Amino acid sequence: MQQPESPSADQDAGDGSEKEGESRRRIILGRISGVYGIKGWVKVHSDTAPRENILEFARWMLGRRGEWREVAVTAGRPQGKTLVARIEGVDTPEAAQLLVGNAIAVWRDDLPPIDEGEYYWTDLIGLAVVTTEGVEVGTVKRLFETGANDVLVVSDEREGRGGQEVLVPWVVPDVIVEVDLADRRIRIDWDPDF
Q: Whole-angstrom Cα distance, residue 115 to residue 149?
């Protein structure tokens, strides 16, 4: 499973997406976390894996509170434990400070293609999860990494569960039997009461 970008999509609509067609979703890759130096560079917190992948995009969308604007990234590099980037037209620390806290996003269709059987986290969020016995467990809300494998966090929508979280390890094919993006469904061989 790929995590070259954040598992979250744009939060404007409150449901994790702002769609102009599936490929025009904004995918949040990180955020501007601070100012670096005196020439207007910004510090970047990246949710990509590896973290430097965020610097491979020549254009970012910066957004806060539902307001987005596209910017050109003219340079970027690792700097200690963080990343720094230069944004066209931002030439002073004061101008860079105005960007701190902005989310960094790209369009879903700008993400690089991946191999068959691999998935971006953002494409899994919102998929229905069903056991091999046909029990509808719920919907993927988010994912997280562990040392051994990634984990799906599924909101359990079965009667009487009230959205309780079920953790499902991303272990193919033992637990994750099938991912069908077209039908927006993941089949699992897992006891949801575990």
A: 19
